[in-house]
Write a structure and sequence with these properties.
alpha+beta, 5 helices, binds calcium ion
Amino acid sequence: MKANFKKLPIYLSLFTLLLFLAALPIIVQETQKPKTVPTRAEMPVVGGTLSLFPASDRLTINQETDLQILLSTGSYQAAGVDVRLNYAPNTIEVISLSEGSIPEITLYPAKSVDAATGQIIFSGVISTEAIPFSGDNLLLGTIRVKPIALTGSTALNFEFVGPLSADPFDLDRRNDSNLAEFSNQLNDILEQVSNGTYQVVPPPTSTPTPTPTSTPIPTATPLPLPITLNLKIELEGRSLTDTSRARLVTIKIFNTTFTTTAALDDLGQIAGLLLDNLLPGSYELLIKPDGYLQKQFAVNLVAGQNDLDFSTNFEFIAGDFDNSGEINSIDYSVIIANWNTAAADADIDGSGRVNSLDASLIIANWRLHGDQEGI
Ligand SMILES: [Ca+2]
Ligand SMILES: [Ca+2]
Ligand SMILES: [Ca+2]
C-alpha cells in the first residue's frame, strides 16, 4: 500500500501525458482550420473615381459658381492624379482653379485652363516624403465657373478613354485622366468618371423682355441643405478642474480660404454653427481655440447637421496666449507678468490664480506648435 502511494505521482504524470496525446489530433485540427476572416487578396479590388460636385445644377448666367473635383481612390493608395476636363468655352468661362484639401498632395505640376479649346488640366502629386493618399470623395480642387451664354444645357466632361484594365497597352488610356497607384506608379487605377451637366438659366430677378415668345419663368432652384456643426472639444487644463471652456474658436479648412469664428460654451460645445458657402465633402478641419494650439481633423461633412465630438480622445494643447502658433518665451512672459493675479488670459487651469501650475504646463509644452501653424 505504501509503495503504491509513493508511485501515485508517476501514475498521475503518465495519465496526463496520455490525455494530451489523445487530444493532440483535435488540437492540430483546430489550429489548421481555415480562417473565416477574408484575407486582403479575397477583398474585392475597387478602382478610383473622379467626379464633379454638384454633378448637375442650374447655373445662373454671369454668376460665378464653384464646382468641386472629387476623387475616390477605391481600395488603393494613390501617389498622383491627372484631371483633364473639357468644356464649351463659348458657354462657360473658367474664372479660377484652386487646390483642394488632400494634405499629402503637396505639388500641383499642372493647373491650367485653355479658354480657346475649352480644356482644364489639373494634376497633383505627393511629396518626396512619399506619403500616399486614399479615401472617398476627397476634395482635389475647385473650379470657379461663370456661364456666359444662355445655351441651355452644357457639360464638363472628363477625358477618359476607359480603365487601363480594359486594354493596358492602349496609350490613350495613360494620356487622359489618371490616378497613379502608390505601390506601382505605372498603374492607372482610375476606373470610372462622372461628368457634370448644367443648365444655364437667366437670373431669377431678370425683368421679362418684351419678346413675342414667352420667356420661361425660372423655377426656384432647391437650395442644398446648409452644413451645420455641433462641435465638442476638450481643453488642456480645464479637464482637470472642470472649469469653464468658454472662449472663441477659429475654424478653418486647410488649403482653402474658408474661416469662421464661434464661441465655446462652458462645456466646450458649439451648437448649430452654420458653415456658410461650403459644399458637402471631405475636408481637413483646422480648429484653434483662443490661447491653444491649432489641431487638424479629417472630417466628412454632410448636408444638414454634423455632430463632431473630439473631446473624448484629444485635448487642445494650452499656452499659446498670443496665438502665434508656437509656445515660447512670449507666452511664458504673459505668465510672469500676471503672476499671482486672477488674469484669465494666463490662468491655464482656470483656478483663479496664475502660478507655478500654470507655468509648468507652459514648460511642458515648450516649443510645441500647432498643426499648419507656427512652423
Ligand atoms: Ca487614364
Ligand atoms: Ca505663442
Ligand atoms: Ca491657474
